[in-house]
């Protein structure tokens, strides 16, 4: 019978051989991606315009197939994340994707950008949501990532309001599980903390935990969790920050307490914004903006055609129209792509009954 060392040596040789095959296949995929870029460049109708290299619907279909055919032992989402990084690296060979996100570095929005585009994307921090929209509109970057809603704190109104004046389209969404940590400089004693920095939304998400553990400690709202981590790192002992893992690594902070959010299922949804329309991935969402007439039954006239067409509405938000007293604009998310007949039929009917209907985009539902 073979010894333990002999058995391990044989298995390691087997792993080395498998790794060699994986490496060869990854390079073959990368070469194929380069040929795709060459074909797109050769068939441009306008040489002044850059071809569209990134296709959200295609990537969503690939990742879904990866998860569907996975037989383990690796978790399907873990395998999909590996393929996301392979696709990100291959896409960078065609043309590196520049992405603006709500910064500074270390925010959950940056984490969402990396989750969606992979670590080969070039991520550019912006100080405000307005700046993310402007950077994409000016074509200084290809895409932008902005927060749209949190499962416990609700919608981000500032993002919704930007769509009123912008012609950018939604090309994707990212769902990110949010884990908040209390971070401190090394060797800081938690009992001596006198100030806690964080974004106001994160402070709200951890309010019950803070009331229980640090009821008399000053809580200071800042522009982002990353800024909170920066301040904690700069100001030293007696100061803590509530932020995520990326901010902890970036600013050299330690975890005093982990996962301090009041609701364990706390998550945030982010939108990907760009210029191009997205084709159907067979599992899509469509977001619209509706400026209704100020009359009785206005909301009913908006919703009834979708009900009759069998279209599922997944979210409705209301914002002031800013055009006269008591006027409202409705932001609606619905299941399906605008090119699908039931959705297209309902949109056409609603359009005839309202002041304005603006399709913000049809895009793949979040895969990971």
Provide a compact summary of the structure.
Helix content is 42%, strand content 25%.
List key phrases describing it.
single chain, 368 residues, alpha/beta, D-Maltodextrin-Binding Protein, domain 2, Alpha-Beta Plaits, globular, phenylalanine biosynthesis
Note down, in words, how this protein is organized:
It contains twelve helices and 15 strands. The chain is globular and about 80 Å long. With 368 residues, it is α/β, with parallel strands linked by helices. Helix content is 42%, strand content 25%. Among the domains are: 30-40 and 54-95, no CATH class; 181-265, 3-Layer(aba) Sandwich (D-Maltodextrin-Binding Protein, domain 2), CATH 3.40.190.10; 278-364, Alpha-Beta Plaits (2-Layer Sandwich), CATH 3.30.70.260. Helix 1 (4-42) crosses helix 3, helix 2 (56-69) runs antiparallel to helix 3 and helix 11 (298-309) runs antiparallel to helix 12. The longest helix is centred in the first third of the chain and has 39 residues, at 4-42. The two termini are 45 Å apart. The mean pLDDT is 94. Catalyzes the Claisen rearrangement of chorismate to prephenate and the decarboxylation/dehydration of prephenate to phenylpyruvate. It holds the Pfam family ACT. Pathway: Metabolic intermediate biosynthesis; prephenate biosynthesis; prephenate from chorismate: step 1/1; Amino-acid biosynthesis; L-phenylalanine biosynthesis; phenylpyruvate from prephenate: step 1/1.
């Amino acid at each position: 019978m073979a010894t333990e060392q002999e058995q391990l040596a044989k298995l390691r040789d087997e792993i080395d051989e498998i790794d060699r095959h994986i490496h060869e296949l990854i390079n073959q995929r990368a070469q194929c991606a380069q040929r795709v870029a060459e074909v797109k460049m050769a068939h441009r109708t306008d040489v002044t315009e850059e071809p569209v290299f990134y296709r959200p619907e295609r990537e969503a279909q690939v990742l879904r197939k990866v998860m569907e055919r996975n037989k383990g032992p690796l978790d399907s989402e873990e395998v999909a994340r590996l393929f996301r990084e392979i696709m990100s690296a291959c896409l960078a060979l065609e043309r590196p994707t520049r992405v603006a996100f709500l910064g500074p570095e270390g925010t959950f929005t940056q984490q969402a950008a990396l989750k969606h585009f992979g670590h080969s994307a070039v991520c550019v921090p912006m100080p405000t949501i307005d700046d993310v929209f402007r950077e994409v509109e000016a074509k200084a970057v290809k895409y932008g990532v902005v927060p749209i809603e949190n499962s416990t704190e609700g919608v981000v109104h500032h993002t919704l309001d930007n769509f009123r004046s912008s012609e950018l389209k939604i090309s994707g969404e990212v769902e990110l599980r949010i884990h908040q940590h209390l971070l401190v400089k090394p060797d800081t004693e938690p009992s001596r903390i006198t100030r806690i920095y964080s974004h106001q939304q994160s402070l709200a998400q951890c309010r019950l935990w803070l009331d229980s553990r640090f009821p008399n400690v000053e809580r200071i709202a800042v522009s982002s969790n990353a800024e909170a981590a920066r301040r904690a790192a700069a100001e030293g002992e007696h100061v803590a920050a509530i932020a995520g893992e990326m901010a902890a690594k970036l600013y050299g902070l330690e975890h005093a307490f982990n996962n301090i959010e009041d609701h364990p299922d706390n998550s945030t949804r982010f939108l990907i914004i760009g210029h191009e329309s997205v084709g159907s991935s067979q599992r899509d969402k469509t977001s619209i903006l509706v400026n209704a007439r100020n009359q009785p039954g206005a909301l009913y006239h908006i919703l009834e055609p979708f009900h009759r067409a069998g279209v599922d509405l997944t979210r409705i938000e209301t914002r002031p129209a800013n055009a006269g007293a008591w006027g409202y604009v409705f932001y609606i998310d619905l299941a399906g792509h605008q090119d699908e007949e039931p959705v297209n039929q309902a949109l056409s009917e609603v359009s005839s009954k309202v002041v304005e209907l603006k399709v913000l985009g049809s895009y793949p539902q979040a895969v990971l």
